[in-house]
């Protein structure tokens, strides 16, 4: 079934509404420790900001993300899978047990995604570097005859198309990995097979609809975040852009904005957690939709290649018995022949 945008939204909202607590608990367990470590690192005195303690806390946060990600993805997929198959909320203990059982498959998938990502980043950086160098050389004649600031702006203008291409390639690659977190828990493949299957569903499962679903949820998420964080920047921007703003006014506004950063970080983190309880089921519905479309195309292709599988197994009911008067097929006499 190829769902429309409204159908995906309704299914995702229904999933979030009926599984809000299990989803929220899983997200908090995954995000909470990294958030605490980040807050401790940010709160360190300036004298310790670049010390070994800060570096150690950052490494601990990175290690936790790497080793907890497979467990988190397995847990969330178990919650969504149970609801999709049974229509009933899963017990959290059952979801944790499923995540533990699938931990190895998710870890191999994560490592495969990291390897492929390094290769993709290298290719994107190479293409972007060639494009940037080409843009600069193509506009080299306009760098001379002006002030240093004008030449600097000219270089940036020449580099802009290449930078746009780089950002587009990074987004496109991230988009192709949208389904990796669900495949090991929903299907058999893991590792590189899961990564490549995500690419397959993206392209074969109605590419433009998948792209549209992803862009729409991204724009909605960014729009909600902008509405929430805008009040933190309105006083600063109104002061800086005021016609009669003095240096002291701008300094005061900057100080006030810096003082509000911890509150801003807390608000945006809480908002992100609650948004994730909807965006993850939403992308799960997009994955199911793309998988159904891809599987339907595979089934149609097999039918065109091999024909109807049941046709070759039918036989004429009027087949005559073999010569000699025997029965075809053999039959058991009444009462067992007694």
Automatic annotation (TrEMBL):
The chain crosses the membrane at residues 20-40, 52-73, 110-140, 152-173, 211-234, 254-275. Keywords: Membrane, Transmembrane, Transmembrane helix. Residues 298-338 are annotated as: Disordered. The keyword Membrane applies. The keyword DNA damage does not apply. It comes from the Bacteria. This is Glycerophosphoryl diester phosphodiesterase membrane domain-containing protein. It comes from Christensenella minuta.
